[in-house]
Each structure stands twice: as C-alpha cells, then as structure tokens.
C-alpha cells in the first residue's frame, strides 16, 4: 500500500517540469505584450505630436488675431478708462505732451508737461529786500503782495511763493500756510520744473513739521500721498521718488510705487525712448515688444505715425489672465505655455514650440501634452486590453506557481512527517522487543532464576507483550479509521464507570513510574451511547499523552461531569503545556509539538488524531486548554443518553 501511494504521489521532478511548462509560454506572451505596448506607445506619441502641432498653430493664430485687434483699436480714438483692464495702461505720446489712461497706474513719466515758469525779472527788488544786509521783511512782504495782484498767473505764483517764504522768516506760520494754500490752486504753473501745486503742498508739510503740529502734518501728508499715488501730477522719476521719501519720513512708513506700477512705468519709458528716436515711425507703424523689469515681463503693443504714438502697456498679471488664457483656450486640450512666463511644461512631456522669430509674436509659444487627454480613444482602449491580457497571464502564472509551491511543500511536509512517524514507530516497537529479549536471555541462563525472580520476569514480559499488542492494535485501528472501515458497536454504558476502570488499569502501568493518577466522580450515573473499546482507547491515549508531557510533575487527574446535556471526561496534567499556535494542529496525524521534539519525547503522532476520529464517530467534541509551563487539560464531550 505504501509503495502504491508513493507511486500515485507526483514526483518532484514532474512538478518542476510542469512549472517550467507553465512559466515559459507565459514569459513569451508577456514579452510579446511588452513589445506590442512599446509599438502602441510609439504610435500614440506620434499621433500626439501631430495634435500638438495643430494646437500650437491654433494658439499662435489666436494670439495674432488678438494683437491685431488691439493695434487696430490703438489707431482709433484715444482710450477711455473703462476700456483699460487692470494691470494695464493706455498711453498716447505727442511731441509736446504725454497722456496716460488711467493716470494713477503710472507713477512717473519720461516726459513732463511744459508748464509755464515764473519770470525772474519782476522779483529782483523783492529778493534784494528779503536777502539784504540787514533784510527788510516788511518791505519784501509789501512788494510780494503787490505782485500777487498781477494779472499774469506765473507772476502771481512766483509772488505767492516768495510771500510765504517771507512770512516763514517773520515767524508767521499760519499766514505762510495760507499763502501756500493760494499757491496750491495754480495748476498750470511750474516752479523749477515742479508743479506749483506740489511745491505748495510739500511746503505746507514742512511748515507744520517746523511747528511740531503732528496731527495736522499727518493729515496734510496723507492727502498729499493720496494725490501722488492718484497721478494728480505728471512727474519725472527723480521728483516722484524725492517727494515719496519726504512723505515716508512724515508718515513713518514707506511711500513708494508698487512693483506693478513701476513695471508699467518702465514700459512707458521704453516706448518714449523708441518713439522719440524715430524707430517706430520709420520702421513700422505698429509693433509688439516684451521687456523684463526685475524679472517680470512687460508687454508693449503700439501703433504710431509721425504725429503721435498710441500704446497699450500690460504687466505680468494681464499677460497671464488674458493672453495666456487666449492661448490655452485655442490650444485645448493641450497645455499651452509662453516661454519664460509663469509655469514651465513638465520635463518629461512631449512638446512643440513656435519661436518668436518664426511667428513674429513677442513670445515663444510652447504646447505640451496634457497627461493622456490628447491620446485617441482607440489607443487607450487597445492599451487597456493589452494590460488586461498581460495581467490575466500574470495572475495565471502566479496562481499556478502558488499551487505548485503548495503542492511541493505539502509533498515534502508529508514525506518529512512520514519519516518521523516511521522513526517513532520503530522506537516504540524497539522498546518492548528489547525488554522481551532481555527477559528471555535471563530465563535461559543455566542456573536459572529463583521462582520469585521468574515470576517477576514473566510479569514484565506480560507488560511488554501487552504494550506491543496495544501499539499494533492502535496502528491497525487508525488505518481502519482513516479508511472508514472501523466498525463501532454502540451500547448504553456509564461513562463514569468506564473512566474509573480505565484509570485503574492505567494506574497499574503508570504507578511504576511514580505517577499518581486520580479519578474524580460522584455517585451519579453518566449514561452515554458509545463503543466501550473505542472510548476506552481514546481515554487511554489521553492518559498516555499526559504521562509523556508531564515533565517533572507526577500528578494526573481524570474528572467526569455533566454540563449542558453532555457528559465530559477530562484529563489534566501539570507538565510542559502546549503553545496556542500549535493547539489546532496537534489533532492532525503525524503532528507533534515543537516542545516534544526538542525534549526528545517519543511518540507516533497518532494518539490525538485517533482520539479525534473516535470522538467524531460518537458525535462528540474533543478540545484542549493549555499554556506553556502550566500543563494541559483535554476534554471529551459526548451527548448524554437519558
């Protein structure tokens, strides 16, 4: 039978050949699938490149149309504030003047308006009295007031300026403030290249500072700062920054143009330089240019003729909000970028670009793939099918390999268990056979043992013979149980009486080893339907197991009790115990605990498996409660028979 089972079990070499036969075709299929994926990816990349070329052309065309419409509008009537978006300014340059809409977006200008300056001749006598040795402030004040009544606005402005100066020297600050206030109303006059209104306003602040009139100074400075930021005066850069510095001191916080306003001012300055140099009028009637101011792009779109130049100057925020939005809309679903402006395309993305030299635009347009959104649907579907097929092959190979691995491991485990079983059975047989041989040799001696010794030898031979008989019967019974050919003769019997008898019989064998085996039960009956011989063998196996694993302890308890309609027979020892991880496996055939192997405890690994077979056949349950170092308690629970 053993040879037949070994013949039916698949050899390990056959399993290996099966594994090779499974893996090689799968590897071939996966290799072909990878090559198909590479080809499909190359085709998809080529198609994506064609779509990117088209998207780039559409984006360039959209920008060209937008810029052309803007240049056409610049050639018409001047801009109104409502036509100028945020972060932009509309500029008109003429030989004699400069106009910005809205004015507050340009803090300073490359060209200031040609305002009329006061003449110096009418003020010679006044200044002689003011700066003479000694000065005659009363006479100077009289002359200045006469000149302030002049019909010439420039003479009036010069007189008011000097009147206020004299009043300051005469320690009459309130009268000086009033004179400066009158000067501030003269908007068309310039004093030393600076608007008279601005001169008067900052002079009032200086008087208030001299008088330590802090609250009034702050109010005057805040009003002046608001007018400066609002573009009330058209100033050059040096004048603007000088006044801003004074205001910063008076207000205790920095007053200067923002990054956005300075960027627009830089664009206006470039336009003025180009137009006054004649380049736009001579070379082209319109154009577009992008400048860099502190790293930020400033875009200038202009249209000019010999009499004027109109321009649209846009900062970086308008560039991103308008032109980049137009570009992205035209190039969708691709991702569009302007080189050097805002974010850059991912380094691994396929891209197409149109340089400024090719398009005439002021930017290099870059169009990149949008993460698979431009890939045609047929490529995506084909790739999904390829991936699904490869995944199915991998799953098949993995499943086959797993089952192959399990089969080989199971085969090796069974072979190892069977080898351990043969070794254990050989040892179990060898022990009683050795004892029989020794006693036979003693009985065969010439002088022979005494009658008393002879009786002891015969008893020992009987015990060895019974042990050998039980071992053979156990093996045969287990083989019949495994094959389902073990007959059971069920009868009504008292489980308590059976436990007491088996315990008494076992005590005779274990008592010689120093074990104290006790049986606890009361006078009640414990009726069950059972096969007397089979149930006795199951209890005997539990007792034998307790002896083997008791360690240094020599106490074994048997207890019979009734619980919940069942009769329980328990066997408890106080030995080495069983780890929780092994408690479910110890009822399998050939399985023995790690502690038993390490301690050299002999056994076939069939005792508990036989107990489980017998108890299952009786419709009962067998269980164990144990912990390492605390002993084990095995319990057979059978249905009570009323």
Outline the structure in words:
This protein has 642 residues and is of the alpha+beta class. Among the domains are: 149 residues, no CATH class; 145 residues, Alpha Horseshoe (Serine Threonine Protein Phosphatase 5, Tetratricopeptide repeat), CATH 1.25.40.10; 153 residues, Histidine kinase-like ATPase, C-terminal domain (Heat Shock Protein 90, 2-Layer Sandwich), CATH 3.30.565.10. Helices cover 56% and strands 14% of the residues. It has 19 helices and 17 strands. The strands form five sheets. Strands 2-1-7-6-5 form a five-stranded antiparallel β-sheet, sandwiched between helices. Strands 12-14-15-17-16 form a five-stranded mixed β-sheet. Strands 8-10-9 form a three-stranded antiparallel β-sheet. Helix 5 packs antiparallel against helix 6. The chain starts with a helix and ends with a strand.
Name given to the CATH architecture of the domain at 487-639: 2-Layer Sandwich
The CATH first-level class of the domain at 487-639 comes to Alpha Beta
Overall average pLDDT? 81
Biggest sheet, strands in spatial order? 2-1-7-6-5
The assembly state of the depicted protein chains is: single chain
Proportion of residues in extended strands:
5-15%
**Rg estimate, integer Å:** 56 Å
Please describe the biggest sheet, giving its number of strands, its sense, and whether it closes into a barrel: 5 strands, antiparallel
